[in-house]
Each structure stands twice: as structure tokens, then as C-alpha cells.
Amino acid sequence: MARLQLQFPEDQYYYRTQLNVRVTEINAANHVGNDSMVSMISEARARFMFEFGIRETANEGLGIIVTDLATTYKAEAHARDQLLFEVGVMDFNKYGGDIIFRITRPADNTLIAMAKSGFVFFDYQISKVVAMPPEFMAKFPQANWLPN
């Protein structure tokens, strides 16, 4: 049994994208390796941010930094599988929040993995964590807030 249990509210997913598993993402056990899944999650995050007009890197100094990543694996994925990444946000705080992921294989409706990645806003010009911009908050009105 996994030590982590990741479950997220359905209304917190805002974006969907598909990625195909490449042969180079398969490990010696003949399924997607952890390192490859982390890369695929990062790609899904980048697509999500781009879709919502959010720069991950310095935009007039402001960007985001990923602070952590938790992933639970539910099933194997293999070469040439098409995976659906559903992406959302939740657990906002003054400086950032969590980006959430549900990864499934639509061909057989199998849940492959769940993941949660923390992030904060960072001003690269002054090298300091800064408050979440109001324009970011406005893009996700359903996102919950954690108490200070």
C-alpha cells in the first residue's frame, strides 16, 4: 500500500493534454520509469501554464519555482501508450499553491498515477519569493485557499 494517498476534488482540474509514451521513457522493467514520469508531469505543467498565459520563467523578473513533487503510481504505462494528463490547482496560500495531476490511459480507462507539485512565485530580479499576483488568482476562482 502506498504511503501517500492523493485524491483531488473534481472541480479543481482546469486543463487536459495528452502525451505519448516514447520508447526512450521505458526502463529495464519494461514500463515508464519514475524519472520519465517526472519529465512528463513537467511537460504537462508547462503546457498548462502556457495555456493560461503564465510564464514559468522570469517575465519582468517574475516566475514560479517548483518546490516539491509527490507522485503515487497506480498502474504501469508502456511504450506507445497515450496518456491523458488532467491538470489543476488547489491549496493556494499567499505565495503559491499546488498543481495537481491525474494521469490516465484513455484506451482502457486505467488510472496510471496521481501527483501534486508545490510552487511559489519568485522574483528573479531580487532573488526572493513574492506574493501570488492577483491576475493569477483571478484565473482560478474555484481554487481553495489554505488558512495562513
From TrEMBL:
Source taxon at top rank: Bacteria
InterPro entries: 4-hydroxybenzoyl-CoA_TE, HotDog_dom_sf
Gene3D superfamilies: Hotdog Thioesterase
One Pfam family hit: 4HBT_2
Keyword Amino-acid biosynthesis attributed: no
Keywords: Hydrolase
PANTHER family: 4-HYDROXYBENZOYL-COA THIOESTERASE FAMILY MEMBER, NOVEL THIOESTERASE SUPERFAMILY DOMAIN AND SAPOSIN A-TYPE DOMAIN CONTAINING PROTEIN (0610012H03RIK)
Family: Belongs to the 4-hydroxybenzoyl-CoA thioesterase family.
Official protein name in the record: Thioesterase family protein
Organism, as annotated: Undibacterium curvum
